[in-house]
Structures are given as C-alpha cells and as structure tokens.
Design brief:
By secondary structure, this protein is α+β, with helices and mostly antiparallel strands. It is built from eight helices and 15 strands. Strand 3 and strand 4 form a beta hairpin. The longest helix is centred in the first third of the chain and has 15 residues.
Length: 279
C-alpha cells in the first residue's frame, strides 16, 4: 500500500511539519539532475498511474514538475455546453446547497461555510442556497490545470491559510474535515451578462506535499494576503485560471438558477470541458 494511504500514517499526519515537507518535495520535483533519475521517475509515474500519453503534447520533460504540468494536444478537451468541468478528475461529491450548508464527501459532512470562509472571514452563502455543489478531485493520470466552467468576471479572491493533508479516498476516511483545514483559495465570480450575471464560487483546496495554489497572471504575493483581494478580471469560458503544484480538489458552488441535476454520477471520472450542469 502507498504510505499516503496507510491508516497508521494518516492518523499521525497532523504531527508532521507540513510546510517543511512541502519545501523538501518541491526541491525534488523541480530538480533537473541527475537526469537519468528524473526520467526514470517520469516513466514509473506513467506506468504506475496508467497515464494515456496520447492526450498530451509530445515534448521533453526536464523535471517531474514539468511532467506533472504537461500540456494537452490541441483539441483533446473540447468545450461542451452549459457548466463544464474546470478540471480533469473524479467527481467526488455533488448535491444541493441547503440552509445547513453541508458538503457530503466519502461519509464526512463538512461545513460549506467553513470551507468558504476559514476562521476569520464571512462570505455569505445566501446566494447559493438551493444551488449545486460539485467537488472534483484531481487524479495523477489527468491534466492538472484549472479552467473556467463559464464565462465570468473574477470579483474577489480570499486566501485561507491552513495545513496540507492528503485528499485521497483513504485519507478522507481517517482524517476529519480535510477540506476545512487545508490551505485554499476561495474565488468569487459573476457570470457575464449574457449568462444572466449570476454569482458562483470556486474553492481551490491545496493538498499534501507541494500543495501550492497558483493563479495564472496573478503573483501569489498579490492574493495571499489576510484581507480579501478585489478584482475585475474577465475570463472566457474554458480559459485557463491556474494550477496546483501537485494535485488537489476544486469545489464549485452554483446558485439556485443553475441547480439542474448533474449530468455525471458521483464517482465517475470527468475531463476538463465536459458538460456537468445544463443551462
């Protein structure tokens, strides 16, 4: 069993120095030498995760991080209709946002309010009551960039510092409230007028080891601040938003007007651009 899925290891994970581990692993993933070891690690990853490389650009990878952030071939992720998946991954959870605002993931009930706000911030959930939540866990075999599910304007970003617990299925069975405790970025959006100027939110949840959250074109120093950062940045549907340094989870919160049943059953793999909610 992978040590990251060993119950005894997971029960003690809170005792580990998460940020120190992140820095150590980051050095390994960005190392270019010895080149033989780097290429061997990449080949092992391809075999172990059964990655279909036919989707990805045929280019050399100098580091393991380069391979993790591999680019797609043109046309391999066409944009579907409606609200589309922002990432490749497993649809871990989906449901209706109620007054109690609980996210049900692998037997756990997590507070959407705490997920969205952390300890010191108070963004209202009122605009999402009756809408849909969708949680997608990025798998090692997939594409690891994050894209927009709808054409929208980024209104506000709230950085929520935290830990870096693993988020695989086994870890969620042994570590409580992972999504509420890990570092994350809560992004608040307004759809473009032709889509009805609807609010929605995306919560990017950092994971164990490297765990970094990166927004395209926005340095971390500009948004990883105690106070929320206000923006007026427009994005097209399917435009690249950012990436995680080493995998994680995206939670999408949609308003009541976008509450049609999800087109994909929980537990199924999805691809970036695949339709999830019809308009």
């Amino acid at each position: 069993m992978n040590i990251h899925q060993a119950p005894a290891f997971l029960r003690l994970y809170h005792l580990l120095p998460h940020r120190l581990l992140n820095l150590a692993v980051a050095r390994l993933l960005t190392a270019q030498r010895p080149a033989v070891a780097v290429q061997a690690a990449i080949r092992y990853w391809i075999r172990h995760a059964q990655i279909d490389m036919s989707d990805f650009a045929d280019v050399p990878y100098r580091t393991v991080e380069d391979f993790f952030l591999r680019e797609l071939k043109t046309g391999t992720r066409p944009l579907g209709a409606g609200v589309v998946s922002p990432v490749d991954g497993e649809l871990f959870a989906a449901g209706t946002i109620t007054e109690s605002a609980m996210l049900r993931v692998k037997g756990q009930q997590l507070s959407l309010s705490r997920l969205l706000n952390g300890r010191h911030h108070r963004a209202s959930l009122s605009g999402f009551i009756g809408g849909r939540y969708l949680a997608i866990f990025l798998r090692p075999r997939g594409y690891h960039y994050i894209h927009l599910p709808l054409p929208a304007r980024l209104v506000r970003c709230q950085w929520i510092p935290g830990r870096f617990f693993p988020q695989n299925e086994v870890a969620l069975s042994y570590i409580p409230r992972v999504y509420e405790r890990n570092e994350r970025a809560a992004l608040f959006w307004q759809t473009e007028p032709e889509q009805g100027s609807l609010p929605f939110a995306m919560v990017l949840v950092g994971a164990s080891l490297v765990g970094g959250i990166h927004l395209a074109g926005i340095p971390q120093s500009q948004w990883q601040t105690p106070e929320a950062t206000n923006w007026q940045r427009h994005y097209a549907k399917g435009e690249r938003l950012g990436h995680f340094s080493f995998g994680s989870t995206v939670v999408l919160l949609l308003p009541k007007s976008l509450s049609a049943p999800c087109l994909v059953p929980v537990g199924q793999m999805v691809q970036q651009g695949q339709p999830l909610i019809p308009l």
